[in-house]
DNA sequence: TTGACGAACGTGATAACATAACATAACGGA
DNA sequence: TCCGTTATGTTATGTTATCACGTTCGTCAA
């Protein structure tokens, strides 16, 4: 059901400790026979639709969802500029605040991008 | 002091109703003699450093700061998928929540990207 | 004045990210 | 089988961003 290429991409992201770019995935998956960017992007699009993968805008990269089936555009990320790891966060208080901001100006939110950039605990402590 | 090219870019963004891409700016500023992407990107980098312009990650575009001299990475945006306008929001409650999220995992935030995508009030009502 | 220096600028090439256009194969139900 | 849908493959191209290198220009001290 997932489709062959989707499974390859999903596996690669699962093995990775950090978000990966599409061309990085392509490089890795050449061994499996994937040859063109489009094959990667199509697989990513579907995985994102299914809520298994998130796109990290500030990195132009893609990360496995730590839940399974996160609805689109509801996760926040803390991204370490040093080690590259991105930790996914779900916070009801954050969602409330974002809803309030939207409501105040009559904005109908379809999806939200929340990305903190900085240093993770491990990297900050040295 | 702002530099000639920075002023051109700043003026263009001021006249624009919505965020502009770097190549869109380039196109517009050809008349002024700007010819290469780098001229645009350099000007944008400086304007961003000075807090006069924000980069909108989810659009790969750039918007004039509605305040003057917004410290880097502290603004949120509500971006209309229909008309393209991006409204800049500053919300103390949002900043508190983001600080709390960071603190919980010992994350040292350098900057935050918060972008809502959806429909603005005008566009939702028709 | 002059020359040293750094900041801003100019240009061409190239890297990195993403999609268009078109063709083919695989699958499943009428 | 026939048809429609979904997944796939390939080439070319479009869009966004940076590198490497050289030049111009203002400032300031000798
Ligand atoms: Zn998720
Ligand atoms: Zn780290
Ligand atoms: Zn601002
Ligand atoms: Zn609108």
From TrEMBL, chains A, B:
Fe cation binds at residue 95. One of its GO terms (molecular function) is transcription cis-regulatory region binding. Zn(2+) binds at residues 80, 83, 120, 123. One of its GO terms (cellular component) is cytosol. Keywords: DNA-binding, Iron, Metal-binding, Repressor, Transcription, Transcription regulation, Zinc. Its cofactor is Zn(2+); Mn(2+); Fe(2+). Binds 1 zinc ion per subunit. It holds the Pfam family FUR. GO terms for biological process: negative regulation of DNA-templated transcription; regulation of secondary metabolite biosynthetic process. Signal peptide: none annotated. Gene3D superfamilies: 3.30.1490.190, Winged helix-like DNA-binding domain superfamily/Winged helix DNA-binding domain. InterPro entries: FUR, Fur_C, WH-like_DNA-bd_sf, WH_DNA-bd_sf. PANTHER family: ZINC UPTAKE REGULATION PROTEIN (PTHR33202). Belongs to the Fur family. This is Uncharacterized protein. It comes from Mesorhizobium temperatum.
